[in-house]
Structure formats: structure tokens, C-alpha cells
Amino acid sequence: MKKVFGYPHALSEKRTHYCPGCTHGIIHRLVAEAIDELGVEEKTIGVAPVGCAVLAYEYFNVDFQEAAHGRAPAVATGIKRVHPGAVVFAYQGDGDLASIGAAEIIHAAARGEKIAVIFVNNAVYGMTGGQMAPTTLPGQKTTTSPYGRDTATVGYPIRVCELLATLDGPSYLARVSVHDPQHIIKAGQAIRKAFEMQIAGQGFALVEVLSSCPTNWGMTPVNALQWVKDKMIPYYPLGVFRSPEEVTSHDA
Amino acid sequence: MERVMMKGNEALAEGAIRAGCRFFFGYPITPQNEIPEYMARRMPEVNGVFLQAESEVSAINMIYGAGGAGARALTSSSSPGISLKQEGISYIAGAQVPCVVVNVARGGPGLGGLNPSQSDYFQATKGGGHGDYRLIVYAPGTGQEMVDLIGIAFDKAEQYRNPVMILSDAIMGQMMEPVILPEMQEIPADKAWATTGKKGRSKPNVINSLGIIGEDLEKINIELQAKYARIEAEEVRYEADGVDDADLIVVAYGTSSRVVRSAIALLREEGKKVGLFRPITLWPFPKQVLQELANKGKKFLVVEMSAGQLVEDVILAVNDRSKVEFFGKLNGTIPTVREVYEEIASLLRKGGAK
Q1: N or C: which end of chain B has fewer CB within 10 A?
Q2: How distant is the alpha carbon of residue A99 from its chain centre?
Q3: CB B262: neighbour CB atoms within 10 A?
Q4: Please, which residues bridge with residue B166 across strands?
Q5: How far apart are CA A91 and CA A206, in angstroms?
Q6: Which residues on chain A are in Cβ contact (under 8 Å) with B207?
Q7: What ipTM was assigned to the predicted interfaces of this complex?
């Protein structure tokens, strides 16, 4: 009988520490599936962030380096320059990538650094207990915006894909969501595409994944997924912001 | 073996390449710019990588990535930039990744100035970043040592899987001297512990400094301290010149040791018994040797271009067995041979030494 579904080999069988209803597990699986499908487990090197995915190296069957908060794109740059034939990816959250590591991500993208970045945007600092993130929505309540994010005093959320799309460096920029099975399939395709591009020797690829945080949002897992759909997607529209086709035409 | 005339910064850069360094990441700051500029020209000739990072913070993290991936990787900067690198240095020490960091020091605090200074001694030898960790710190005193110590730095970084710092300064970096360059080495990036991709290994290699469970972190720290104890036992380097018959021993490193050497030469011509003790490793500090000299009744004078940092280590080493005097020049100025001569002569008169 043909096996149609199984545990990805690139995912370790360790039980994760993620909260019930958190979508990190789904995103980990999509990354592992892409590694399996492309047959690159033996030459993949991951860079783990500071934040909820700090233990990501425990959950993948590939070599890993832990980065300081925000510095994953710089660490990935160092690794990729030493092993240009390796598949190097960084896995980062929103505080990590869009706040403390804003310089690192912008310059890795501007350089067209040949790495893949999985950017998990759940509009909140998860690991530290629910503080306001650079992607927290206007009016959204967090522990450091207890009256709701007031744009008059703390400004506006950052749309990372749109920001990076102003640069010539990136080759692939996409925003996806994992709030329902149909979108999970599309997210998987985008992640796979980011890895494929690197194998093909093309440049910087980033996939932003809208993700839920029921614990820090104070919602049930089901309501949290609904909130991604109703609140996050309108502010962070899904789509491809830079594609290889566009890069080719840009170069021409 | 070629003998060539080179600026200290360039001698160090070429020395690094001869020692197998093929990855340089850095950011412009005076007075170290000759190093990245030299690397930008030279790396393409040896199939190496020069990359100008967006910041000191990124440069040190690129080194962490490249060193963790098994390569000999170098970054250089000057004092304010080295402050920015401290986060990364702490992570590198915690994750036990070999790499070399060069500080071509200038005066501080804050923006300070561009003149040579020795006021980063504490930062280099006492931590600098967070946590209980140590760097091996070499202080070159000649152009030749710029070449020799960078090679030794890479060897020791790999031997102990520890970051190594070269503490130079604006004079050491800018001054031209003849140097003998060693043969070219090629060092493959294939360490057993490095992130290379598994390539058939049964277990992934993981480079990290996380010990989220208290007992795990304690274990990591016990291991680190044991390593530092081995380094202290094995890696002390110093130069002792004319200390055996000396009544007074002048302790100085790097640029200030060169001024001291000239002053001592003048005093020796007058028959004064003065010696030079020059630590080459600032950590591990040659405290044992200094203690033995103190036990023999030698007196000490510490000369440095700071308000007094090295002097604290000398006092700790001597531990009240002898007197330790201090002569410092604050940031921005260099002691002249005449000033140091007068200082020593005056101490000898006070101490009744012949």
C-alpha cells in the first residue's frame, strides 16, 4: 500500500514545548516536509531564534546554530558564506525579526543573501509573556499596551514583506497563513519554494507566516485562528510580494 | 619566508590569511580601517570572503555563524565598535565557538578620540559581555608579533574552542615595521562539531549557549571554568628582559612597553638596575611569574596608557609581597621616553636603589 501521510523525517520525534493551539508546530512540520521533499536533510543548517522557537534545534533532525535575539540573519550569513552548497534557513518571530533584528533582516535581504527565512508573525511577544510586538495591531491589547495599541503614541505595525519588497535584493517574499487546512497547504508550498530557490542558487527568500498565540491573546485555539482570519489578514494581506519571475524581469 | 615592510594592521591581516583565515566580516571604524580594506583586496585572491557588515553587531554574529560552521573567521574593530560586539562575544564564548576578534584600541569613554589607548584592558580581560567567561587576550608589542600572534590566536581558538582577542592600539596598527611572513596555510572547515550539514552523521550538530534548566547551565559553566583553568595553566606568555638583577621591574604591554624599553636602555647605560616585564597574554595573566619576582624582593612600576587597569592585575599577583607603583597617561596621549625615564629615576632615588 502506498504511504500517503507520515511523520516527516526531518522533524525529530521530541515532544514540543509549544502551548496548546499554537501554530509553531504546524509551521515546523511544513519546514520539515519541505526538507524531506527536496531531499536536503543532510545539507541543511538551521538558525534558531530567541523567543518561543528558541528550542527549534531540538525539533529538527538537522544541524543548528542558536542565534542571539534578532541576529539570526547575520549568523545565517556567516554559515552560508562558509558552506555555499548548504541549505541555510533562519526561523524567527516578530519581535526578533521586525524589532531588535530589523537591521539584520533588512541588510541580509538587501544583500540578496542566499538564505531562507521563516518569519512567524503572531502579533505579540510570546515567550516573554505577551508584550506588544512591532506587528501588534492597532488597538490590540497586550501586557505592555494594556489599553490597546495607541498608534498616536507608539506608532504603527510594520508590514515586513511590503517593507522588504522595496529592496532590489530579495528574490522571493510571500505572506501566508496557517489558520485553516487550505491555507496550510499554500503555506507549505511557499516554504518549499523558498527552499527550492536556495537550492537553485537564487537569492534571499522570506516567507511570513501569520500565526496564532491563544495563550497571550487570551483566546481559545479556535477563536485565535478566527482572529488571524478576521483581524490579521486584513492588516497583513496574503500574497507574493516578490517572485523569481519578477526578479528576472527586474534584472532584464 | 619573506621579509617585508608593513603597517601593523596590514601585517596582522596578512598574518591572518597566512594562518588560514578565509572569512572576514567587519565594519569601518578608525583606527582599524586598514584591516578591512586590506581584506577587501586580498580575500578574493585567496578565494576567501570579505563582507562589510551593516554593523559591528552583525559582524560579530557573522563570525559566530562562520566559526560555528568550522571556518577560521576574523573580525576587527576599535573600542566603541568592540563595545557593540560584546553581546556576540558572550554568545560565542558560551557556545564555545573558535574565532578571533581584533581591537585596535582608541581612547574613551564614549566616542572618545582616535589616539592610541590602553583603556580597554578591563573590557578585554575581565569579561566585557555578560556571564562568567574568559577570552584569551594577546597584546602584540611589535609588527612581527602582529603576524605571529594572529596565527597563534587561530590555533588556540580552535584548540580550546574559545574566542581569542588581539588587543592592539592605534600606534601598533599604524606603525610600519619589517616583518617576516610565514608560509600560507589552508585549513579546511570540516570540524567534527561544526554545523556543516549532517552529511551522514547520525546526530545533528548543535551550536548554542542555552541552559534553560538551572542544573544544565551550572554544568556548562563548570565545563567552561575547567577549560579556563587549563588555559591558565598552559597558555601564559610574557617577555622578561633584564629582570634577574633588577631592583625595579617595569611592567607594560603593547605600545607603552616600547616606550618603557627605550627608557630602560638609557637607565641601563647609566648602570641602573631596571628590568622590563611584558605580559604577552593579558589573560591568562602571568601572575605566577610576577609573584615569584615579588618574593625575590623586586619592586614594580606599572606604565600604561590608562588611568590604571593593568596595575590592578599586578597588585593582585604581587599580593602585598612588594610595592607596586603606577605611572599612567590618560587617553589621548602617549608617555614619552623622557617622562618614563624621569619617573623611573625618581623612584630609584626614593627607593635608595643604585
Answers
A1: N
A2: 14
A3: 13
A4: B102, B138
A5: 10
A6: 64-66
A7: 0.96
CATH architecture, domain B2-199+208-234: 3-Layer(aba) Sandwich (3.40)
Is A201 domain-assigned? yes
* A114 inside domain: yes
10 Å CB burial of residue A15 (0-12, 13-18, 19+) is: exposed
Does B198 contact A63 at a Cβ distance shorter than 8 Å? yes
DSSP character string of A147-188: T---HHHH-----HHHHHTTSSS-SEEEEEE-SSHHHHHHHH
The chain B residue lying nearest A54, using CA atoms, is: B210
pLDDT digits (tens, 9 = 90+) for A84-121: 999 999 999 999 999 999 999 999 999 999 999 999 99
Q: How many domains does one find in chain A?
A: 1
Q: Which residues pair with B207 in a beta bridge?
A: A65
pLDDT at A217 over 50: yes
Whole-angstrom Cα distance, residue A94 to residue A130? 12
On whether the CB atoms of residues B306 and B118 are closer than 8 A, the answer is yes
Q: Which residues pair with A121 in a beta bridge?
A: A210
**A11-20 pLDDT, tens digit each:** 999 999 999 9
| CATH code, domain carrying A184 | 3.40.50.970
CATH number of B239-351: 3.40.50.920
Distance CA B351, CA B215 (A): 54
Low-confidence ranges of chain B (pLDDT < 70): 352-354
Q: Rounded to the nearest 10 degrees, what angle do helices B143-160 and B214-234 cross at?
A: 140
Stated pTM of the model: 0.96
How high is the pLDDT of residue B354? 42
Decide: helix, strand or coil at residue A240: strand
Residue whose grid cell is 581584506: B39
pLDDT at A247: 63
Q: What is the pLDDT of residue B332?
A: 74
CA dist A188 and A37 (Å) reads 11
